Amino acid sequence: MIKLALKRRPLLEVDIVGIVDHVRRIKYNWNDIEEVIDGGDSLSINVNNPAVYLKQFKTGIDKFYAFSKRNKVFTISLDFVKADRKDLINKLNDFSIKALELQEGTK
Fold it and tell me: What are the start-end ranges of the H helices in 9-107?
């Protein structure tokens, strides 16, 4: 996390493609996300194909902290994300809807 602070990069990015956790360097694509759950101090992300994302983790400890085999969800900590939680959830909803509309438009 020190590198991110020194580089002044965002810890979390949300756009039309998906959610990027820069702390763990994992990109979750909207077309694979089933559900995002607001946990207050974290986001829980349920994906269709967890194996794709597990391959992206650099260390076993990151996998341990980020993925719950029991619940089959990935967790992104929001402890250091400076954003209004309500605004963040609204942005997540907006982008997920736009991505779904784009995906349906290409069929």
Answer: 50-54, 60-66, 85-105
Q: What is the pLDDT of residue 8?
A: 65
SS3 content of the chain, % helix, strand, coil (to 5): 40, 30, 35
Provide the token pair at 37: 């759950």
Q: Containing H/E element for 2?
A: helix 2-7
CA dist., res. 21 & res. 78, Å (int):
10
The number of residues making up the chain comes to: 107
% of the chain with per-residue pLDDT over 70: 92
Token pair of 99, please? 């991505």
**Which backbone phi and psi does 76 adopt, to 5 degrees?**
-115, 120
CA distance 99 to 60: 31
Domain ranges for the chain: 2-86
